[in-house]
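Lecture 7 notes: from sequence to structure.
We start with the chain below.
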Amino acid sequence: MQAIKKSDHRMIPPRRLGWIVIFLIGAIYSTCAWGQAADETSLDAPLSAEADDQTDAEIADGLRRRFAQIEDFDQLEVSVRAGVVTLGGEVLSEGQREEATALAQRVEGVARVEDKIEVIVDPRQRLRPVLENSWDRLITLVSYLPLLGISLLLFILFFFLSRWAGRLDFVFERLSSNRFAQDLLRQAARVVVILIGVLIALEILDATALVGAVLGTAGVFGLALGFAFRDLVENYIASVLLSIRQPFSPNDHVTIDDREGKVLRLTSRATILMTLDGNHLRIPNSQVYKGVILNYSRNPLRRFDFGVGVGVGEDLTEAQRLGIEALEAMPGVLVDPPVQALIGELGDSNVLLRFYAWVDQRQASFSKVKSEAIRHVKTVLEDAGMDLPEPIYRLHMVQPSAVPEASATATEAPSSTSPNVDADIAPENHLERQIAEDRATSEDDLLQMDGPAE
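Predicted structure tokens for the same chain:
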């Protein structure tokens, strides 16, 4: 029993034994880690310092070389320590100071940039580089003077060549018979010759890069002008198209939309009509090109028509025959195409007959022939005793004693007058004379005298 108690007294409890094992393992691990870190520190400490010094020197040399290549930065001072760059010296402006700082920050390995650069405020030092640059540019300009003179002479030569090219009328007449198209070709030839001269002059001056900038600016400027002067450009393009198409000729009797008159001239901006009252009517070409044009003179043959009301009890076939014979016998009315008489409408008190006939406007006046035709048909029908009632209702209120007198008056034969076959139906030419006089005093006309092109 005593032996057993003695051995129990010497044994370590399991819980205490576990804590002891954990403590020993932690101590051994800490000792090993500290020893390894000490070894690494003792080996790397002198080498890291040497590497940092070498890196700082490389950064400083690289920045000095970069600054030396820039004229405004060649006097800057550079020092580097542990990746921190310190810049010193003087520059001419705040912008150069910021540029130098930004250039240093972009170098690999730079941790921070300390800016100790000062901006020069001395007027003499600030003016010196300006004067030097101006002097250099003046020397460059003087050296370019011979080339500039040659380019100028070459441009003058091509300018006179462009004027000579614009006088080659026989070439433009062979290319187009339209005068406006000839003017456009003439101007295009001049512009092409001048542009060739400009390009050769710029090639001599080694300034061909300027052409792209000029063309780009001209394109933007032309686009802006196109929006600003859209109506003018639209009128000009319409003038070109109208001069090519030639939808009418001088003296043509036309109706453009609801405007009627005789064509006076076509200009680069408007079409000028002389109304039948002798007034000038100017219509923008854009409206003329897009409008509805009715040309009465394009076809010299023109038909007129008019209506005559005949009583419902009359012989309509006889009325048609009498009217047709009267029109066929009248001077100014063409036999071919034939005269026609058609029943147009049955009214309450009459039947409307419509007569159709043709006139050659080169030989007779359209309005005069139509006027005479109406008079002739009315006279012939009345001479035949046909009733031509008015399309109205009339109420007669008479006394019994007045009935015989009224009846006698009603039975009287209507007075008749024979058609005047010697009536004036000659074409009117007073407007033509005015138009000829007006056109003789102006050369701004794009129309051709030999008739429309379309």
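Points to note: The longest strand covers residues 301-311. The chain has a mean pLDDT of 75.
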